[in-house]
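hi!! sorry for the late reply, been swamped w classes. u asked for the two structures so here they r. pasted raw, havent cleaned anything up. first the sequence of the first protein and right below it the tokens
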Amino acid sequence: MAQQRFMRRGITKILWLKNIAAATRIPTRAEISAPNSTDLTEAMRRRSLPERVLQICDDTARRTEYDEAKRSAARAELLAGSDPDNAPLAARATAAAERYEAARKAFDTASISLRFRAPPRPVLEELIHAHPPTDQQAADGAAFNAETLLSFRSEGDAASST
């Protein structure tokens, strides 16, 4: 018999509860209303989406120079900060920071940057709903079929690749 999974549709509310009395940690109706709760739903909706940048550089010389300049600048700044009245340490820190900035610019020029941004929650929920898990995946606890989700292409992507 196939396992059937259901996604709850509707409005999700995010609440901060000061107290939950039950040992099960399941709040009562009274506990999810004011003054015990604070509604964070709108604040969560307004927040920016998670984003990560992956920088790929095939030029090992520039990568090595960048890494060394970064370490050197951090070390020089730490030393200069430990003795603020020492002019030679401050000069070394300035020179190391300039070398790091030049190495960073060269590294950025030789790199490709890929930006990954999480989709908005409604889009993610629609994708998950459109790619239900197989019976085996559901038995293993999966909420969606990763194989079909990852091979998903939007109509715009399909049109641009032809």
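now the second protein. again sequence first, tokens right under
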Amino acid sequence: MDKRNFAFDRVNFILLAVSMAIVVIGFILMSGAPSTEEAFNPDIFSTMRVKVAPVICFLGFVSMIYAIVRKPKDEGTTAVETVKEEQIVAEEDTKTVTKAAKKDVTKVKKASKK
């Protein structure tokens, strides 16, 4: 199968995995011992849980969006080469259609003579 038909390349998947790990780290930093009815735990309002961890999660989600939106680069081909290849394919298709049309016209002429 042709590689340029895939939406993601290896770098996209690596970026997605790293982004997911960043989000998981953010959620782990947010977790901790809760307050109960018997005892109040002031650690639930710590800077780590309230400010740092949500920012880390947000950065992980933003990097996930980038990993999804990032367009893979074609290795070894430039835009000019790609356009030339498309023109060559279009010319070959035109030649094939022209040959088929000529054959059809010849068949119609033969059929009309009979």
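hope this helps!! also noticed smth abt the second:
The longest helix spans residues 79-113.
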